[in-house]
Amino acid sequence: MHPFMASPKALYIHIPFCTNKCHYCDFTSYVLKGQPVDSYLDALEEEMKRTVAELPPDRIDTVFVGGGTPTVLTPPQMKRFLESVFRHFPIAEGAEFTMEANPGTTDADKLAAMKAGGVNRISFGVQSFDNGLLERIGRIHNVDDVYRSLENARSAGFHNLSIDLMFGLPGQTLELLSDSVDRAMALGLPHYSLYSLKVEENTLFHKLYERNELPLPAEEEELGMFLLLMEKLKAGGYRHYEISNFAKPGYESRHNSTYWRNEPYYGLGAGAHGYARGQRHVNLKGVQPYIDASQAKLPRLESYSIPEHEAMEDFMMVGLRLLEGVQASRFAMQFPGHRLEDHYGAVLEKQIRDGLLERLDAGGDTVYRLTERGVLLGNEVFGAFLGVEQG
Hints:
Layout: E1 10-15, E2 17-18, E3 30-31, H1 37-54, E4 60-67, H2 75-88, E5 91-101, H3 108-116, E6 121-127, H4 131-136, H5 143-155, E7 160-167, H6 174-186, E8 191-196, H7 204-210, H8 219-235, E9 239-242, E10 245-247, H9 254-260, E11 266-268, E12 273-276, E13 279-283, H10 287-294, E14 300-305, H11 308-319, E15 326-327, H12 328-334, H13 340-353, E16 357-362, E17 365-370, H14 372-376, H15 378-383
Parallel strand pairs: 1-4, 1-11, 2-3, 4-5, 5-6, 6-7, 7-8
Antiparallel strand pairs: 8-10, 9-10, 12-13, 13-14, 15-17, 16-17
C-alpha cells in the first residue's frame, strides 16, 4: 500500500473548554462555566468508536490533546477521557502523548490522573513572564502560577515539558521579551515554542486593532525580537528545528513533525481537523451541535478531497518550516511518479538565487532548506509555492 494511504499514526483530540477566552484567541474554545463537559466526553467517545470503525488504526505513535485548555477537566473526567483514548486506539509503547495545559490548572491530583492515564509530555501556555503583559493579553494566570505548575509537574514525574512564549505583543519591548526568555531558559526545560502574535478576526484584539487601539511593536522591532530569541536559545544549546520551535536534542515534538511532513493524522473533537487517505475534514465547532451530531454519525462540518497539486503545495509550505528542509526522496514517496524538481524547479532556483534557500546533497538525496535569511523571510518563501501548478 502507498504509505500515505495507510492509517494515520498520529492522533489529535480537541477539548474546547477554557477558564476564559484570551484576547488573541480564535481557536474553537468556550468558557467552561455551564458547559456540558460530561456529555461532550460521551460524544467524543462516540466519535472515537465511529472513527476506528471507518478507518481502523494500525498503531498510534503520537497523541496530542489540545484546546481550549484540556487541563480544566476534573481528575475523574481526566481519568475517564484518557481511558477512552486507550480503549479505542492502539497507543504504541513509547508513544509521545502530549497534553496542553494552562498554568494554574494543574494541581497534584490532576497531574496524577494525567500521569496514570498515559500522558508523558505537557505543553504549558505561558506566553510571558511579565504579569502586566499577561493581564493585557487576557491570560488569567500569573508568573507565580507558572513556577508552581512546572514544579508540580516535575514532582508528579513529568520531565518532557515545553512552554509557549509569545512576542510582538501590545506594549511588549525588547527588554521585556529578553527578561521573559531568560527566565524561561533558567527553568532548563527541553523544549520551547515561540510564536509571534497574529491578530485574527473574531478576537478582542482584532476589534482594538480596527479602532487603532492596539499598540503593537513596529515590524523592525518584531524582527529584532525574533533574532534575540534565536540567539539566546541557540547559545543555550537548543536546536532550532522548526521556525517557531527549539529543543534539546531528542526532545523535538514528534507529533507536530507529522504536520510539518504533511503526513496523515486523526482529528477528533469539536472544530478538530483531520487528514487521511487524501481527504481533509473539519468537525462541527459548537459544543452542542457536536454532541448532537455524534449520536448519529461522524460530526463533520465538511470533508473534501485534496487535489494532488494542492497536497504538493502543502508538502512544500509546511516542510520548509522544518530547518532540516524538504527531501526530494520524501516528495517522491508521497507522490509516486513525480519528481520535486519537475514541479518546483523554477521556484527553487529563484529562491536559491535570492539567498532564501540552499540545496544540499545528503547521501545521494537532494535537500532544500531555508538559509539564515530565509528563516527571517519564511512567509515569503512559503507563499512562492502557491498556485505554481496552475500557473
